[in-house]
Amino acid sequence: MNRITRLVALAALATSLAACGSMDRRTRDTAVGAAVGGVAGSVLTGGSTAGTVGGAVVGGVIGNENAKRK
Asked: Residues 70, 25: contact at Cβ < 8 Å?
């Protein structure tokens, strides 16, 4: 990666981490579940959009339900 791409990626990461600081537990778990599910869905389906979106939805639901139990 070139220097500009690295700086943009670092700025995006810092911004996203700062945004999570004010989230409650349930919202954070839902967001993390959706992100992990989206990545897993993409990997399992070879990068298809439907697999990514489906994985994000399933992961978000699981994260939300998991937060209710805590």
From this structure: yes
Residue tagged 């937060």 (tokens): 67
**6-49, pLDDT tens digit by residue?**
777 777 767 766 666 777 888 888 888 888 888 898 889 988 88
Tokens found for residue 20: 């999570």
Residue in the structure block whose two tokens are 């778990």: 29
- How many whole angstroms separate alpha carbon 64 and alpha carbon 56? 12
- Two tokens at 7? 């700086």
Which phi and psi angles does 45 have, rounded to 5°? Answer: -105, 10
How many whole angstroms separate alpha carbon 61 and alpha carbon 25?
Answer: 14
pLDDT reported for residue 20: 66
Please tell me the number of Cα atoms within 13 Å of 12 on its side-chain side. 6
